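Good day; I would like, with your permission, to put a structural problem before you. What I wish to show you is a protein chain and, alongside it, a tokenised description of its three-dimensional fold. I would ask you to consider whether the tokens describe a fold that such a sequence might reasonably adopt. You will find the record immediately after this paragraph:
***
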Amino acid sequence: MSLNGKVALVTGAGRGIGQAIAMRLASEGVHVGLLARTSKHLEYVADVLTKSNSIRVGIATADVSNREQVESAVAGLKKTLGPIDILINNAGIAKFGAVSEMEPEDWEQIVRVNLFGTYYVTRSVLPDMMARNSGDIMNVSSTSGLRAAATTSAYSASKFGVIGFTESLMQEARKYNIRVTALTPSTVNTEMAAHLGLKIGEEDRMMQPEDVAQLVLSILQLPPRVFVNQAGIWTTNPQ
């Protein structure tokens, strides 16, 4: 299915997976709304996209854990680009630590950004999709949303929540021809992974943000009659 002329909103679009997805969609003729907390990286991505593609690009800054900021940012992007056809809920944060040691404020913030942020952005675009009887929503979870480990309690709780939210939304939205997918990538070679000190193996075997972006594109290009409810992507690195 051609995506040319559609409008996508990508959260966490300034770097990493979000940036790669935005660039991949733009290469297919998709007009892209970029949302993140700070404008510096968004401006760079927007500049690259407009120079290399004949598309419209909009940028908006918001903390996705703040509902008022999200609603204002999405309204501005819709005014610039038009109704959202594709939503990529990618924005997320991570911090690991034992339950007895992590500060409650840190634990709560991870859940607010990763889970509530996904909900707030979705809620801002869903009514328009329902009215038009079409749309694609892709929520980036993690393999940590499928199985937890010591020190990942906050991150895993948030990402398990994203999968549960996605499943429920899928059941609600199918009758409106809205396709809802949860992505569960293993460790991706991003600044966040490096900051967390995660072992991601040899350079030529690391999963790259562009790999996730290619999976996103492949799912979106499926015929409208079908959709993928959950999609995992793993590195061949055994670590």
